[in-house]
Amino acid sequence: MTSFWDSPLSLYSIPAAWLLAYFPQAYKVNLLKQVGGYNNLEPRQNIAKLGSKSGVEEKLKAKIARAEGTHNNGLESFPLFAISVLVANHAGLGHGFINRTAAL
């Protein structure tokens, strides 16, 4: 009888990783809306406009910039992660090993 962990659960980590990359973006948008600086027409200019806005704490500006950086890092690393999981499954590596590695 095969174990539950010996099934290809690592494939579920691909959409999970994609979704996790968007949590910092949602957090950033909420913070920007609180200070009244979110512009959906020019979303790439939000951080630059926030820098010139007076009355916003530097700590909050840094938190928003970190959230944007985290979101960008997640999007940049996602293709390599997804392809690595797919190639490992296609190569026939042990599902238990791939599952543990993908969970890291």
Overall pLDDT score: 88
Tally of helical segments:
5
Structural class: mainly alpha
What Rg, in angstroms, do the CA atoms define? 19 Å
β-strand number: 0
The geometry reads as: elongated
Share of β-strand residues: under 5%
The low-pLDDT segments are none
Along the chain, the helix and strand elements come as HHHHH
Distance between the termini: 26 Å
Largest sheet: none
- Helix content range: 55-70%
What would your notes on this structure say?
The protein is an all-alpha fold and 104 residues long. Helices cover 66% and strands 0% of the residues. It is built from five helices and no strands. It has helices at 13-20, 23-34, 46-51, 58-91, 95-103. α1 (13-20) packs antiparallel against α4. The protein is elongated and about 60 Å long. 9% of the residues are buried. The mean pLDDT is 88.
Concise summary:
The protein is mainly alpha-helical and 104 residues long.
Annotation keywords:
104 residues; single chain; 5 helices; mainly alpha
List the helices and strands and how they pair.
Blueprint: H1 13-20, H2 23-34, H3 46-51, H4 58-91, H5 95-103
